[in-house]
DNA polymerase V
Amino acid sequence: MYALVDCNNFYASCQRVFEPRIRRLPVVVLSNNDGCIIARSNEAKDLGIKMGDLPFKMLDFLTANNVQIFSSNYTLYGDMSARVMQVIAAAAPKYEVYSIDEAFIDLQGVAINELEAFAKRLKRNILQATGLPVSVGIAPTKTLAKLANRWAKKHPETDGIHVLGTDQKVSVALQQTMVGDVWGIGRQYEQMLNRHNITTALQLSLTSESWIRKSMSVVGLRLVKELKGQSCILLEEMQPPKQNICTSRSFPEIITEKEDVRKWVMTHMASCAEKLRRQNSCASAIHVFLQTNPFRMQDKQYYRSITIPLLTPANNTPELLFYAGKALNAIYRPGYNYKKAGAMVLDLVPACERQGSLFDSVDRLRAEKLMNCIDSTNAIFGRNIVRYASQGYGERWQLRQARKSPSYTTRWQDVIKIQI
DNA sequence: TCTGGGGTCCTAGGACCC
DNA sequence: TCTGGGGTCCTAGGACCC
């Protein structure tokens, strides 16, 4: 059996932990640049607030209902997530961190009649250690565990825990789950299946496997087998290193000048380089893109991107910035209102397996020492305290985050590090 | 009555997830 | 004025090899 542990309304719940006075008030968390709503407490959901709603369009409604609004604070969420995972690690020998707020657990070794008690204990321990409420779904496959978790969230009488321990319970859950709510069925597949009169998870599980294979590829076939209780998606205890890394943001305001765009591209590429070094990888190619605001119908639209292969895989910032600059020169065109830019590093390889080049002229050992020095300095004094001049500086390069809370759990660590 | 038969690598596009 | 930011996997088709 597998368990899926999922934090309820994770970002909103994180904000609540540190402000008890909002514990019973509706809470929403905003995306980068405070653009749209990406997390809601149950009270906010009950008010009819949707994912992706635009706060500026409904400010009156939000204030009238005393909705508490927060800019996103990923430092806080990341740290709270790590604490939840620690509790899970202490409770289970085999688990998989699936996302910032979810983990699968392999329950081999827990007796069938002990599953419910195990889940209750875990839920209580997580709440006690972090203040965060979670839901637990338990079932014979990961896909069914997802379904069970959803059931637990939808049915308050379960108290956040649901075990699909018998065929009977599985088929009831399947029958009452819409096919579009199944893990792995997105909007396109939902429409396609509905056209074939498949509307529930149960109907999907009873569909001919050869037809599924033909119209939904092996991914769909795995999914259907999982619904039937045949485990096809294994637990991944080790997170494989990323194959691509991307950093991109919408600008807080429209930008027309190339040098202003450049500062953002450089900042994003520097961030990619940092993430690369953190996972001990090198990039074989870089990619840069920029675009106008597609929502502004009155503007001339432009989107362009470019990929530049590197002679030798690299992860040092100045080298990647050099190529990012060349990339921007190739794709930038004057006369547009730019809204967004991004940098990516592609085809990542482990730093220790990097293929050298006969014609490489970079002193890589020296570069590595410099990067180590910059990374550790920034780790102590804060992100981007030491940075390249081409990244720019000053208020104009900050995101809009008008309602950001303190990073409650990490600030004291910063202080300790500085003292050391 | 008739088509050669293997392969690999790369890219674009489409689907999905949080 | 204002519309998020990351990722993965799979398939088909084209270009190439012997």
Residues 98-102, 183-189, 216-217, 219 of chain A lie near DNA strand B (CB under 10 Å from a C1').
